[in-house]
Specification:
Layout (H helix, E strand, L loop, with lengths): L17 H13 L4 H11 L3 H4 L7 H5 L18 H12 L17 H16 L2 H20 L21 E7 L19 E4 L25 E3 L4 E7 L21 E8 L2 E8 L11 E2 L4 E4 L11 E6 L9 E2 L6 E4 L5 H7 L14 H4 L10 E4 L19 H27 L5 H24 L10 H14 L5 H26 L4
Helix pairs in contact: 7-10, 10-12, 10-13, 11-12
Length: 515
């Protein structure tokens, strides 16, 4: 996942867009160059410099501890987070295109106006968004929590799930990202997205929208399509009010979460699904609601870190996205198709599946068997007239809503403390103490104002929504009272992370008792 543009959160979904995916795969198949050169090109095209950019976080101690100033040089690695905005040109070179690609800005048409919007407004606001910076850092650091939880033996492809899962969509969709092996994984690291999938709807040409269509989200086949519960369960987390860009190629610069709008459902003990990038205001369930497999819960959108409308879906072992470990999933009642525009691609990508899985004359009994899917496949969900029997997934009792609100509030407060301390530390390099206090106060006021506005609106309220401004406010008070110094800010950043993780682990263990 590209740090700025993926759920790979780097949502995300579409480091592999359906329309470009076909071209790149065909190039690989038809390349007549020597095997070693072709393998090198394939390896080079998979390099994600944004992960190397994580070395930039080593510079943080150098900003707060005088004796560690030498570490500040690692801040240069942060420049690699700009990779999502320059990789199309590199991609053209790797694939031998002599002409500039029409999607050189990932879906934005060429022209001065688009160039200004994309590189002058969108890139800086996305790259410098402190909420996304902290969430990405939490996500990568949270992978360590997952390894500790499993003592290093994190779930692998043969992991046995307690519930049976259907696709969270109806009809025929294309898998543009994801799989159960390292080679076709959505993103092998961070751990939370290891077995995630991205889905779109494509036409006979493998395109996600009609020829000559604009980049408006309504032009994409999957936009506003129903999103369904993959299994019976209880809703434990929601965001319904994040901003959504109205054009593909650009995610909203003021988004508050890399997932955008999402729903998290608990299906069994330590089994949660996360459905991501939903249309704002489309969520039809609330915290504590019991849902049935196949029940519509929202609509597919373009919110969060999204390069075009799609659905990001993943199973995880915790309600906390940043510290969860991904769980591999196979689906029942699906059929693997062979898209007419590229049979070779599907045959290669589905080589791990038995041959009979691709036939259309399967019996209903065979369709109930669990099927593995992977990027490049076109899949069809068969009619679920009868809900698949769930294994040990009937909740004994509803979620304690007051307790859930308290734990989520504490988690978001920890997140806010880290955001406030990071902003203070960076700002202290160029701003006066009074200006920093004013900046933090504006953030607090904006947070509380947004919370009040959302409570009065028709949007489903996010649990713990007050935690972010509360955490930033605590840092602002401590800074204005001169209780914080540069050397202590690093400790405060770590304190916010520890609070977020500790409450999340406590909440995960508490929710086990629901099943």
């Amino acid at each position: 996942m590209a740090m700025a543009e993926g759920i790979s959160m780097t949502d995300d979904a579409t480091n592999h867009r359906a329309d470009s995916f076909e071209t790149e795969t065909d190039t690989e198949i038809q390349d007549d160059s020597p095997t070693n050169a072709r393998s090198f090109k394939s390896w080079l095209s998979k390099i994600d410099p944004t992960k190397i950019g994580l070395l930039g976080f080593l510079a943080i101690p150098g900003w707060f501890i005088e004796s560690a100033e030498l570490l500040q040089i690692f801040a240069l690695f942060f420049l690699l987070f700009l990779w999502p905005y320059i990789h199309p040109a590199i991609d053209s070179l790797l694939h031998g295109d002599s002409e500039a690609r029409s999607d050189s800005t990932d879906g934005v048409d060429s022209g001065w106006l688009e160039w200004i919007i994309f590189y002058v407004i969108y890139v800086p606001t996305t790259f410098l968004n402190p909420l996304l910076m902290v969430q990405d850092a939490f996500q990568f650091a949270g992978s360590l929590i997952g390894y500790i939880r499993y003592k290093g033996a994190v779930p692998e492809a043969d992991y046995k799930l307690k519930a049976n899962y259907r696709l969270p969509v109806e009809g025929t969709w294309t898998v543009v990202n994801g799989g159960l092996t390292k080679e076709n994984s959505h993103s092998w690291f961070p751990l939370t997205q290891r077995y995630a999938y991205d889905y779109v709807i494509t036409d006979d040409k493998g395109q996600t929208h009609p020829d000559n269509a604009s980049t408006a989200v309504e032009e994409y086949y999957c936009y506003n399509e129903p999103v369904l519960a993959p299994a019976d369960g209880v809703v434990v987390d929601i965001l319904d009010s994040d901003f959504e860009s109205q054009h593909a190629g650009i995610s909203h610069p003021l988004k508050r979460d890399i997932r955008g709008n999402y729903v998290t459902i608990q299906h069994a003990s330590n089994e949660y699904s996360s459905l991501v990038h939903l249309v704002p205001g489309s969520i039809e369930v609330n915290i504590g609601d019991h849902v049935k497999q196949g029940q519509q819960i929202a609509r597919c959108g373009h919110s969060g870190n999204s390069s075009e409308p799609h659905l990001h879906f993943q199973l995880q072992d915790s309600p906390t996205f940043e510290t969860a470990a991904a769980l591999p999933v196979q689906f029942n009642n699906i059929q693997i198709n062979e898209p007419s525009h590229n049979k070779n691609k599907v045959e290669r990508r589905s080589s791990r599946l038995p041959a009979e899985e691709n036939t259309e004359n399967k019996s209903q009994k065979e369709r109930q068997e669990l099927t593995e899917i992977t990027a490049g496949q076109q899949i069809t969900t068969h009619n679920h007239t009868e809900t698949t029997k769930q294994a040990n997934t009937d909740p004994h009792e509803s979620i304690s809503l007051p307790f859930r609100r308290v734990t989520t509030l504490l988690q978001r407060t920890g997140f806010g403390i880290t955001v406030g301390a990071l902003l203070t530390g960076i700002s202290s390099l160029i701003l006066t103490d009074l200006t920093i206090t004013l900046l933090l106060s504006i953030g607090v006021i904006a947070g509380f104002t947004l919370w009040i506005a959302l409570r009065l609106s028709e949007f489903v309220p996010r649990p713990g929504g007050l935690g972010l401004p509360l955490g930033i406010g605590l840092v602002a008070l401590a800074w204005s009272a001169e209780l914080l110094t540069g050397n202590l800010l690093l400790l405060v950043i770590l304190t916010g992370f520890v609070l977020h993780v500790t409450v999340g682990e406590f909440d995960r263990k508490r929710l086990q008792s629901n099943f």
